[in-house]
Design a protein that fits this description.
- It comes from Marichromatium gracile.
- It contains 24 helices and 24 strands.
- By secondary structure, it is α/β, with parallel strands linked by helices.
- Strands 1, 2, 3, 4, 5, 6, 7 and 8 form an eight-stranded mixed beta sheet that branches. An eight-stranded mixed beta sheet has the order 12-11-10-9-13-14-17-18, sandwiched between helices. A six-stranded parallel beta sheet has the order 21-20-19-22-23-24, with helices on both faces.
- The longest helix has 22 residues.
Length: 732
């Protein structure tokens, strides 16, 4: 035998000696007999059999294949259909004792894992290509004793450091990996030319990198185009393992921190995005109205295109700072079918805080794992996502269906499709199917604020017809108030509250307001910068911003006769409608979405078509007949408001929890993972707000720091105060 062949025999002997041979798993070994004739292969296997004490010609647990794997398609093409699970180790890769047991232990209790790849010295994401195996290898590829000892020592350390930690990464190590039964089945059913990781993702499965196992690459052996492609892809994730490289250099494991527990009320967990808006309003209102339970809020934090870069746990939606923070190794772009990092965070929260129920308000930046906790779960439909990729269920007109053809047209031509643009139609179809499936297979109840939302969900997803569902109207946390509507005299005053956008009817208002302003004064309050397009119209008045809670004072000062809401999309609730009705102000609204559910035309408000002429004509008729407005105002004043207490009580009936014995310890919430953060910035803050907050912090820090000489503190303080005054003058 040649020196090279002898190296291969020896590395294969080590591999087989270190394998525990888990029942039912095929060990696939490509490339070990590459370039050998049939006679040389027989001699190779005979020599190997004598060294390891196995009859390789008859052992159906092991398949030695001459071809070097250039990807999973090579493996799948030669793998018998009877094989349900496979572990692949290519020529030139060393594995430590019990390697297969360690890989399988990660996947044995989780049906969502499609494949697991180990770490490898000399290969990203752990190494830059100059790992222990390369530094200690001879030119023939043999690893010397010192290098072998160093590698095995590092493997033992990795096994301790990463025993419970694994990375979900969109990579698959083609030369050494474990394909689970569900992963192998998905790949067999998929297009062989498609990236296997993409195939697994579309099947709702995840790809893991095991942090409890360290393999090694022998220099000069095992090279292939598939390995080169893997190295290029895995290099992008190398930064994620900086902590592990540091620990390997230090040679010791990190300390593990534990939490003490203190609370005496049952706990429920809200799942939300960090966009604010009506969803944030609702979550804060819910918590304000719930005096009998502890409510925690898990928010996804990210940026455009990666909406789930990290997860933050809060005591309420708008509370600051967060109680806990976790970074996801693989950011969630929109919604993950599965994410093991995310699942680990959920397990930690549910266990540490002893959560008894889950309320899902958004899946943006989250994973479908929120429905797999086994706990009773409520899904609150604040919008039409994830079935609707544009959120608002409108494309040219309000959507009654969305099949594959319409989905593709929407992705191409719908201007409302602006949030989630990085995925293919097939990915959305896979998400839709997984979403429906997970709702059907777990203890989930759908809750909608109005009947039309429930009907639309069931129309677009008829598979959910049997899903338990309830209509629970939102409550409002507004104090009782006499009507703030104007008397029936004077020029008609129209109020349009809230930020203006395409969805809220900005283009429709561009047609309406010039004609409406001929006989009415129009007040755009909280319109944002979009309202500036109307600043030149006589009779139109702008209030760009107002703080939440100031709506009452704004309306009290204006005393409008009527409100106008021109949404084009079928809103699921509309807090602005609720606020105007609460304060006795009749509303003219477009005939879409929840407006139809919540306005009885001519009795509690007015509905009109999505047409500028119809809106102006209705407004002119109300201006001419103020008695109609007076009648509606009286009806609104006699309608009892929907309270937060009533809303929360309805939710509690759907999500019962076990009582907590007096004095029983549950949790003590504290920002344990924020200790390294010197300053925490609210992700919803604008850059201007963050910069101004830091400016104020700097002023306090400079003028009070004892480390600076008094003359320097005084001079810097004067400079900062001058800049502050100049900033205020410019803003005024």
């Amino acid at each position: 035998m040649t020196v090279r062949d002898d190296c291969l025999v020896e590395s294969l002997r080590l591999l087989l000696s270190n394998t525990a041979y888990a029942t039912g798993i095929r060990l696939y070994l490509p490339g070990f007999s590459r370039g050998m004739s049939e006679r040389e292969q027989r001699a190779f296997c005979s020599e190997l059999s004598s060294r390891v004490g196995l009859d390789l010609a008859r052992d159906d647990r092991i398949e030695i294949h001459p071809q070097v794997s250039n990807g999973l398609s090579d493996i799948l093409s030669t793998l018998p259909a009877s094989v349900s699970e496979v572990m692949v180790v290519g020529a030139g890769f060393l594995v430590p004792p019990g390697w297969d047991t360690r890989l399988r232990s990660i996947a044995k209790d989780d049906a969502l894992i499609g494949c697991i790849s180990p770490l490898c010295m000399g290969v990203p994401p752990l190494d830059d290509g100059a790992g222990l195996s390369a530094r200690g290898s001879s030119s023939t590829g043999a690893v010397d004793a010192a290098a072998m000892t160093a590698w095995l020592d590092n493997d033992r350390l990795v096994a301790a450091l990463g025993a419970t930690q694994h990375l979900q990464l969109p990579i698959l190590f083609p030369q050494c990996c474990y394909l689970t039964a569900q992963g192998l089945s998905a790949l067999r059913a998929a297009d062989r030319d498609l990236d296997p990781v993409v195939c697994l993702e579309r099947a709702g499965l995840v790809s893991l990198v095991a942090l409890n196992l360290l393999t090694a690459k022998q220099r000069g052996l095992g090279e292939s185009s598939a390995l080169s492609a893997y190295i290029e892809s895995a290099s992008k994730s190398s930064r994620l393992l900086g902590w592990l490289r540091t620990r390997l250099d230090e040679g010791h494991a990190p300390a593990i921190d534990s939490a003490a527990v203190r609370s005496s009320q049952p706990v429920q967990l809200h799942i939300a995005h960090s966009w604010g808006g009506g969803l944030g309003h609702w979550v804060d209102d819910f918590i304000a109205g719930d005096s009998s339970r502890v409510n925690l809020v898990l928010k996804s934090i990210g940026s455009w295109g990666e909406f789930g870069q990290r997860l933050e746990l809060y005591s309420s939606y708008s509370a600051m700072p967060p109680l806990r923070v976790w970074s996801l190794t693989t950011p969630i772009t929109e919604t993950a079918l599965a994410n093991l990092d995310y699942r680990a965070v959920l397990r930690e929260i549910l266990s540490e805080y002893q959560v008894q129920g889950v309320i899902v308000s958004s899946l943006i930046g989250h994973s479908l794992d929120v429905f797999r906790t086994g706990l009773p779960t409520l899904l609150v439909a604040h919008d039409h996502y994830p079935f609707c990729i544009a959120l608002y269920s409108r494309f040219n007109d309000v959507c009654a269906r969305c099949d594959g053809e319409r989905l593709r047209a929407c992705m191409k031509d719908n201007p409302g499709h602006q949030f989630f643009t990085s995925r293919a139609p097939e990915d959305w179809e896979a998400l839709r199917a997984a979403f429906v499936g997970v709702l059907q297979d777990n203890p989930v109840t759908l809750v909608t604020p109005v009947r039309s939302v429930l009907e639309r969900w069931r129309t677009q997803m008829p598979q959910l017809e049997s899903l338990p569902a309830h209509v629970i109207p939102h409550g409002l946390g507004l104090s009782p108030s006499p009507s703030l509507a104007g008397e029936d005299t004077g020029r008609l005053r129209v109020v349009i509250p809230g930020k203006l956008s395409e969805a809220k009817g900005l283009r429709l208002l561009e047609q309406v307001l010039p004609r409406l302003a001929r006989f009415a004064d129009i007040y755009l309050i909280g319109c944002g910068v979009s309202g500036h397009v109307f600043s030149g119209i006589p009779g139109v008045h702008l209030v760009e911003h107002y703080a939440r809670g100031e709506i009452q004072s704004e309306l009290s000062a204006l005393r409008p006769h009527v409100g106008l809401l021109c949404s084009l999309v079928p809103e699921t609730f509309s807090y602005t409608l609720g606020e105007l009705q609460h304060y006795g102000i009749p509303v003219v609204a477009t005939r879409v979405g929840s407006f139809v559910d919540r306005i009885d035309h001519g009795e509690t408000g007015f509905l009109c078509d999505l047409d500028a002429g119809s809106i102006v004509e209705l407004m002119r008729s109300l201006d001419d007949d103020r008695e109609v407005l007076s009648r509606v105002r009286g009806r609104l004043e006699q309608t009892p408001p929907r309270t937060l207490d009533g809303m929360v009580a309805d939710y509690h009936r759907l999500l019962p929890v076990a009582p907590v014995a007096r004095g029983q310890a549950l949790f003590e919430a504290g920002p344990r993972q924020l200790a390294k953060e010197a300053i925490y910035i609210n992700p919803q803050s604008t850059y201007k707000m963050a910069a101004y907050a830091f400016f104020k912090y700097s002023l306090i820090k400079v003028t009070s720091s004892p480390r600076l000489p008094s003359w320097l503190r005084s001079g810097l303080g004067k400079t900062l105060r001058l800049l502050k005054r100049l900033k205020g003058s410019c803003e005024r």
